[in-house]
Amino acid sequence: MSGNRTFTMIKPDAVESNNIGNITQMISDAGFTIKAMKLTQLSKDQAQEFYEVHKERPFYGELVEYMTSGPIVAAVLEKENAVADFRALIGSTDPAEAAAGTIRKKYAESKGRNAVHGSDSDENAEIESNFHFNESELV
Ligand code: DAT
Ligand code: MG
Fold it and tell me: Is residue 37 within 8 Å of 75, Cβ to Cβ?
């Protein structure tokens, strides 16, 4: 996968509040093409593995519990400079600190329940995409 893709999840709070459509529209309006997308629910094992990098952090248990609490939308997005441009579109981890007009500012409930995930590097975008989609789904 080249450096023009990123991976996102619309998290349980945003699915629960019926914002899949609004968030997908913002993603499309910002120039991203959806290359793969599915509604799914993470098992505890999957959430623990996905967020393994945070396993020593005090919020890890809460994060895994939240991410398994309801359905999510997993998606692979394409655009030039996808990783950085998508991080700009979603805004800061804490919606209280996120810039106006960002997805988290508009739709996140809190730092823990923050509406969307965005990969932080090209390498992690590829790892995360492969975690959720198999080869034939990632053309
Ligand atoms: P981001 O999702 O902006 O890349 P991160 O990688 O630092 O943020 O953390 C992953 C997720 O963990 C984040 O989206 C929400 C949760 N999280 C991070 N810091 C937290 C905190 N201080 N309290 C509760 N949840 C937190
Ligand atoms: Mg992160």
Answer: yes
Each domain of the chain, given as residue ranges in start order, spans: 5-137
CB 18 within 8 Å of CB 76: no
Dist CA 6 CA 102 (whole Å): 17
Say which of 117, 118, 119, 129 is annotated catalytic: 117
Would you say the CB of residue 88 lies under 6 angstroms from ligand 1? no
Each residue's pLDDT tens digit, 22-53:
999 999 999 999 999 999 999 999 999 999 99
Q: Residues 6 or more apart from 107 whose CB is under 8 A from it? A: 14, 17, 19, 22, 23, 115, 116
State the alpha helices, DSSP H only, in 7-114: 12-16, 20-29, 44-50, 60-67, 82-90, 103-107
What CATH homologous superfamily does 5-137 map to?
Answer: Nucleoside diphosphate kinase-like domain (3.30.70.141)
**Residue 117 a catalytic site member:** yes
Element (H, E) at 73: strand 72-78
Convert the pLDDT of each residue in 50-89 to its tens digit: 999 999 999 999 999 999 999 999 999 999 999 999 999 9
